[in-house]
Design a protein that fits this description.
single chain, 233 residues, mainly alpha, Helix Hairpins, 2 domains, three-stranded mixed β-sheet, 5 helices, 77% helix, rod-shaped, binds zinc ion
């Protein structure tokens, strides 16, 4: 294998490695950043919080009604026990019972409102929950596809790395240094193939002499326009 061909092959491997790394970053980002899932999760948590608060409110409303009924029962049992005979005292107790019953009505209305609100928040909570579950399932399936792709890319990378190592060991260190310097300067592309008498990297037309040299020798020919190493093919 001539030196230009070795460098060209090295370039092909590095380009594949660059593309694989870039795709791996995209996959990582797609898996870790998912605004739809984040939003669904947030909505679900908020609905859950609201539903729990509403349940507590309903519980309190029910407790208040129960406590009020107990109070009324206790006074009425005293009232009808026959133990109290003083008319004034009996009247006071009757008045107190009436007042407690009026307030019981208010408490029962509140309980009814709490029940209605409880139904509404439960509906919202169930909706948010099923939405979140559906999105989670979809994201999980999408992630499986991405993880499979990632595993495939990582396998390719292992193969490319081995191939690159063996290629590097067969190239003159000075040429490797030149190649690496050009890779840095020329946005990753150090070696350009000659296609239809032009440099495939920058598109400039090459003289017949340049093309001839690139074909006939083991020496390194640079594109006069962009400075990359030319590979005649
Ligand atoms: Zn060029």
């Amino acid at each position: 294998m001539s030196s230009p061909l070795k460098l060209f092959r090295l370039q092909q491997i590095d380009t594949q490695i660059d593309q694989a790394n870039s795709r791996l970053r995209e996959i990582e980002k797609a898996i870790n950043e998912n605004p739809l899932l984040d939003q669904a999760s947030y909505n679900f948590q908020e609905a859950e919080k609201e539903y729990k608060a509403q349940q507590t409110a309903l519980q309190n409303a029910e407790d208040n009604v129960r406590a009020q009924r107990t109070k009324i029962e206790q006074i009425e049992s005293t009232l009808y026990s026959g133990k109290i005979t003083n008319p004034k005292e009996l009247q006071d107790l009757q008045n107190e019972t009436s007042a407690l019953k009026r307030y019981l009505q208010v408490l029962e209305d509140r309980q009814l409102e709490a029940m209605i609100e409880n139904d509404e928040t439960r509906e919202k909570y169930e909706l948010a929950s099923s939405h979140f579950q559906a999105i989670s399932k979809k994201v999980y399936e999408e992630n499986q596809v991405l993880l499979n792709e990632k595993a495939g890319i990582q396998k390719d990378m292992e193969r490319l790395t081995i191939e690159k190592q063996s290629l590097l060991s067969s190239i003159d260190p000075d040429l490797i240094a030149l190649y690496q310097q050009l890779r840095q300067q020329k946005r990753g592309i150090a070696v350009a193939k000659i296609t239809e008498k032009t440099c495939s990297a920058c598109g400039s037309i090459l003289t017949p002499a340049t093309i001839q040299s690139s074909h006939s020798s083991n020496q390194i020919i640079h594109c006069p326009s962009c400075g990359r190493v030319l590979y005649g093919g």
